[in-house]
Amino acid sequence: MSSTFDPASYSRQLDEKADRLRELLKPFDAPEPQVFDSPREHYRLRAEFRLWRDDGKRHYAMFTPGDKYTPILINDFPIASLQINALMPVLRDRWEASKTLNHKLFQVDFLTTLAGDGMITLCYHRPLDDAWKLEAEQLAADLKVSVIGRSKGQRLVIGRDYVTEELDVAGRTFSYRQPEGAFTQPNGTVNQKMLSWAYDALGDREDDLLELYCGNGNFTLPLATRVRKVLATEISKTSVNAALSNLADNAVDNVSLVRLSAEELTEALNDVRPFRRLAGVDLKSYEFGSVFVDPPRAGMDPDTCELTRRFERILYISCNPETLAANIAQLHDTHRVERCALFDQFPYTHHMESGVLLVRR
Predict the structure, then answer these.
(1) 330 is annotated as contributing to ligand binding
(2) Is 213 annotated as a binding residue?
(3) Sheet of 34-36: strands edge to edge?
(4) Binding residues for S-adenosyl-L-methionine, per the UniProt record (predicted)?
C-alpha cells in the first residue's frame, strides 16, 4: 500500500486498509467493519520537525526512517492542521530575525487542537537565559500560543504547558487538557469518531467499567457517563495528572483513577500482592460488567488478556491490528466479535486504528 500523500488515491488506500482488517478478523467470524474516514488534508494536530541548516538558514526538515543524514526540507505540511501551517512560516521568520531565538535551535514541535489552542516547543543545544525568555514571551503574545523552551536540564514555560481540546460526543462537549510531551491522538476529527463509536458500542449499563491504559482520560470521560462507576488505570504520571484535571474540569465524579500498569492491576485483582497505590479503593465494591482497553502497539500481555476474559463485554481499541488479532485469538473460545470498526487515524500510511466489541458467548 502506498504511503505517499495523494488525496486523489485516498479512497483506494482506505479500501485497502478495510480489506486488511477484514482478512485479519475473518477467522473470528467478525461482522462487516464500520469504516470511519479522515479528512484528506490538514488532519494532523501535532508535528515535530528537526531543523537543518542550508545556505546559512535553518529549515524545517524531516527524514526517511533509517536515514538521518538526508533531510527533506519542508516549507508547508499539508497533512498538518491549518493552524500549524499558518504558524510555520511566521515562526521561521522570527527565528531568522533573532539571534537569541535562532542560536543552537535544533528542533521545533507543534501541538494544536480542533478548539484552536496551540503550543510551540523550541529545543536547544544551549542553556536558556533571561534574554531568551523575553523574546519567547513576545513570540507567544504575537502568535497567541504557549511557548516552551527546552535544553538539557531546562524547561521554561511561557503560558501553559498544555493545550485545551474540546470534543463532542452524543450531544455533550468534553474539555481535555493535553500536556506537552504526553501522548494524544494526532487526528482530532477521527478521535471524535472513535469516542462516539465506543460510547455507542458500550451502551447504557447499570454496572461498572474497568478501564486499562486510560491515558489523559480521552475515552474515560464519555464512557463514564454510560456506567455506574469506573476504575481506571494508567502508569504515566503526566497522563494521570492530566486525567485527574480533565475529570474535575468536566465534573465527572464516578471515576477512581489509580497509577498502576495493566499487569500490576491484574496482580491486584488476582490477589497476587497488594499495592499501596490502591489504598482507599475497595475493589470488592465494583460490579464490573465491561472492560475497556486501549493498549500500546504490543497489545495486551497474556495475563492481562486472561483478566479481560472475566468480563461480559470487552471493548478494545487497537493501534496495531496484528496484535489485536492475536489477543482475539486468545479470547475467541469465550467471546465473540459483535462489532468492529476501522478508524483512519493515519491516512497515507499503513498504520490504522481499529476497534472491536467482544461479548461473552
Answers:
(1) no
(2) yes
(3) 34-36, 335-343, 353-360, 313-318, 288-293, 208-212, 230-233, 255-258
(4) 185, 213, 218, 234, 294
**pLDDT exceeds cutoff 70 at 3:** no
Last residue of a domain, one of 131, 163, 195: 163
294 is in an annotated binding site: yes
Query: According to the annotation, is 130 in a ligand binding site?
Result: no
Q: Per-residue b/e over 147-160, b at no fewer than 16 CB within 10 Å?
A: bbbbbeeeebbbbe
Provide the grid cell at 316. 478494545
Domain of residue 270: give its range: 7-41+184-360
Cβ-proximal residues to 318 (8 Å cutoff; 6+ apart), any chain: 294, 295, 299, 324, 353, 354, 355, 356
How far, in Å, CA of 346 to CA of 330, rounded?
A: 27
Residues 273 and 346 in one domain: yes
Closest by CA position to 74, among listed 63, 90, 86: 63
Q: Quick one: 336 exposed, middle or buried, by C-beta within 10 A (0-12, 13-18, 19+)?
A: middle
Q: Are residues 65 and 24 in the same domain?
A: no
The answer to whether residue 293 sits within a structural domain is: yes
- Reported as a single tens digit per residue, the pLDDT across 52-77 is 998 889 999 999 888 888 999 998 89
In a domain, 56, yes or no: yes
Which residues are identified as catalytic? Answer: 319, 353
Find, among 17, 39, 348, the residue nearest to 187 by Cα. 39
Instruction: Confirm or deny that 234 is annotated as ligand binding.
Output: yes
Q: Tell whether 28 and 79 lie within a shared domain.
A: no
**Which pTM does this prediction carry?**
0.94
Answer whether residue 279 shows pLDDT above 90.
no
> Number of folded domains in the chain?
2
Extended beta strands in 180-243, E state: 208-212, 230-233
CB atoms within 10 A of CB 255: 22
Tell me how far apart the alpha carbons of residues 313 and 287 are, in angstroms, rounded to a whole number.
13
Give the whole-angstrom CA distance, residue 1 versus residue 346.
13
Q: Read off the amino acid at residue 357.
A: L
| pLDDT > 60? residue 1 | no
261 belongs to a structural domain? yes
Looking at the structure, tell me whether residues 36 and 118 fall in a common domain.
Answer: no
